[in-house]
Here is the input.
Amino acid sequence: MSWTDERIDLLRRLWEKGLSASQIAEELGEGVTRNAVIGKAHRLGLKARPSPVKADAPKKAAAAVPKKPKVVTKPQRVTLLDLNDKICKWPHGHPGEEDFHFCGKSVQPGFPYCPEHCAVAYQAQLPRRDRRSPMPSMGPRR
Here is the structure.
């Protein structure tokens, strides 16, 4: 497909009418794609149009005011439904057991756990030279 003067004029007229790039490609025919139309319009410097995907109207504010998350200051039995970003998510017990719950203390800022459980969950890694070998030494090979 080549862009002849006639095809370019047709592209300009259809673009000015407000047809979509897909519709223009269909009018031009002969294997012209939507992307070819967009590329040629851009190279010709035709006026850009707002995206049909983006909404021009401002979004309406939510009618209901969201409630503040519950901040737990003292330990208590917290269920999965009570969790939020301010509560320690350290599990106690097994999920299948009736008394399964989460820690519930206030979290260490930037972490999902309280300071006590952060100390357990995040431990500094030893430098490579100080780490133990995963395989015990079996002596020299023969």
